Amino acid sequence: xxxxxxxxxxxxxxxxxxxxxxxxxxxxxxxxxxxxxxxxxxxxxxxxxxxxxxxxxxxxxxxxxxxxxxxxxxxxxxxxxxxxxxxxxxxxxxxxxxxxxxxxxxxxxxxxxxxxxxxxxxxxxxxxxxxxxxxxxxxxxxxxxxxxxxxxxxxxxxxxxxxxxxxxxxxxxxxxxxxxxxxxxxxxxxxxxxxxxxxxxxxxxxxxxxxxxxxxxxxxxxxxxxxxxxxxxxxxxxxxxxxxxxxxxxxxxxxxxxxxxxxxxxxxxxxxxxxxxxxxxxxxxxxxx
Amino acid sequence: xxxxxxxxxxxxxxxxxxxxxxxxxxxxxxxxxxxxxxxxxxxxxxxxxxxxxxxxxxxxxxxxxxxxxxxxxxxxxxxxxxxx
Lengths: 289, 84
Prior knowledge:
The structure holds two protein chains of two kinds.
Chain A: H1 3-8, H2 23-28, H3 31-40, H4 58-63, H5 67-79, E1 95-98, H6 101-111, E2 116-120, H7 122-128, E3 133-138, H8 140-146, E4 159-160, H9 162-175, E5 178-183, E6 189-195, H10 201-209, E7 214-215, E8 219-223, H11 233-237, E9 243-246, E10 251-254, E11 274-278
Parallel strand pairs in A: 1-7
Antiparallel strand pairs in A: 1-5, 2-3, 2-4, 3-6, 5-6, 8-11, 9-10
Chain B: E1 6-9, H1 22-25, H2 27-31, E2 37-41, E3 55-59, H3 70-74, E4 80-83
Antiparallel strand pairs in B: 1-4, 2-3
């Protein structure tokens, strides 16, 4: 468990704590107004300034001596901000964690606050100009997004039931999209996304710039060397280059440092060789999210 | 290290309501393998905050650019330039 489970998990995983989904929390913190402000121009989040620097050429800015370290410290503080002075036009307090389909089903089936909507993914829209309805939002955020026509698919029922939400998430997961759950802003949870790397804004910042916008899942994948036939089907499913086929071994090996524990590779395996094990059960990965 | 790359977009040819609408074109966004471009509302314009109409493309993740020049080749109005 990472710090966020200790702080907001009430003894379990942070995203399994029903309190973090409640409308009472949203109303108490006046989050509807905050989220409206944030979502109205969310595509501009990358060009907003942190410490006077925009994210244009962030890779270069983070490499600068002294300034780069200050910028990184400031960005991390912003991403994980729980303070009263959060700025809604930036990504303050907005971060998440990858999770396997099983956990996501539990959330959508039991914990997520209604209404549940399926809307266009903002990250794919920003990064590729593609509108794909695969983002599942719930709680007060649903009402906020419904007012923004560019996120709502035309001619379709965007309000969905829990069963529909689970079915659509599973369909996306089988495509190879990574399920992730998001604080927005911490500790309020209102989204389950189906992400691609590097199109996802969170995965982009985490994987390419080392900012902790997305935490790895509570699990990692394990390959059963007896069962694996080396067919390489799983390798094509991995968004993180964590799986590699070794022809001389006749099987697939895992790079545990790269594995985010999303478990999408399991959908491709016809031999039952892949399973998720708790991240904490691997000594070298304990506490490394 | 590759050194700094500069990717620039000529906003008189693309975006901001002049020339091509990047929401309909989006060729550079899709041609770029490392996805260094982002599409966003033109800042400073407050015409309709709910349904903004002025959009532009910004080359943002410049350190990930591999100088493959695909964006230059694919742009229908020649608005993209890559220098280093």
